Amino acid sequence: MKKLFLVSVLVFISACATQPKDELSFDEVQQKSTSSGATKRSSRAESAPSEAPAKAGSIVVDAGDVAVLEKMNKAVESYVLKNEKKNFTRLCKDKRFDCTVDDKIYPKGKKKVARTVPPYASGSKMGLQGEKRVQVKYDFYP
Predict the structure, then answer these.
(1) 114, 99 contact by CB (below 8 A)
(2) For residues 124 and 100, what is the distance between their CA atoms, to the nearest angstrom?
(3) What angle do CA 90, 95, 98 make, to 5 degrees?
(4) Per residue in 11-61, pLDDT tens?
(5) 76-95 core/surface letters (b: 16 or more CB in 10 A; e: else)
(6) Disulfide engineering: 75 pairs with which of 44, 59, 87, 92, CB 3.0-4.6 Å?
(7) In this predicted structure, what is the pLDDT of residue 57?
(8) Paired residues of 140 in beta bridges
(9) E strand or H helix at 125, and its extent?
């Protein structure tokens, strides 16, 4: 059994080692770009920022958005478990969040916004406040 296992591992390793590499070295890439007349494209790419540009309609999230999302998770939990509404209400007034409590838009009077992109994150928490069952949901659109 051990010999069979060792043979199969060796066959796998040798098969991986014999695969050709499709990667080009930096020098080969430079030679191809200068010989094909693509120097204008490469100079434009160098002047662009190091991050890849976002596609039209894609969701862009930065560190600040992630921090706000973490605050919302804590606020939802404190609302459901401890009935602390202050932080949850403050965050739900933010236009990036769509909040519902017991399937009703929260806070009362906030208009539902029509969105064209799906939410980046969503959350839900259910709990009891005395004898009353409470379900809180939110969708986050950065």
Answers:
(1) no
(2) 9
(3) 80
(4) 777 766 665 555 555 455 455 555 544 444 444 444 434 344 445 556 778
(5) bbbbbeeeeeeebeebbeee
(6) 87
(7) 57
(8) 97, 121
(9) strand 121-129
